[in-house]
């Protein structure tokens, strides 16, 4: 469980550092810097790109497209239910923050899926090895 929480925290940092509605994000920094491009801006962009590649690759490999669609459907319908029950409100741009948290949740599950699967099923996933 601690591993999933750590992955979720890292995914939250990645998602919110890339863009969020507060105005404090890489996208905002990049747009304010144009047309000047600085070394810190490029370095931060490369670090974020590496993070996105790692998370997206792991998520695509572990969940596949169907798993990602099902995860999005699960979290999307859960969010709808929470709004419908009145536990969440769309006031003050909350929906944008909820969407960013859900993206982070899907990425975290994708990073941790093999561990989750092993706990749920007792089966160990084995990566296929392709010989050329």
UniProtKB/TrEMBL annotation:
It holds the Pfam family DUF6524. Keywords: Membrane, Transmembrane, Transmembrane helix. It comes from the Bacteria. It comes from Candidatus Methylocalor cossyra. The chain crosses the membrane at residues 33-56, 63-82, 94-113. This is DUF4175 domain-containing protein. InterPro entries: DUF6524.
């Amino acid at each position: 469980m601690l591993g999933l929480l750590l992955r979720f925290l890292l995914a939250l940092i990645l998602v919110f550092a890339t863009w969020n509605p507060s105005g404090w994000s890489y996208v905002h920094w990049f747009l304010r810097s144009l047309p000047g491009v600085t070394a810190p801006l490029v370095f931060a962009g490369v670090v974020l790109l590496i993070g996105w590649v790692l998370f997206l690759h792991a998520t695509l490999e572990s969940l596949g497209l169907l798993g990602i669609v099902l995860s999005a459907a699960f979290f999307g319908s859960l969010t709808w239910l929470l709004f419908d029950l009145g536990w969440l409100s769309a006031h003050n741009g909350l929906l944008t923050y909820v969407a960013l948290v859900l993206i982070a949740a899907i990425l975290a599950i994708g990073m941790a899926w093999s561990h989750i699967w092993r706990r749920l099923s007792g089966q160990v996933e084995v990566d296929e090895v392709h010989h050329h």
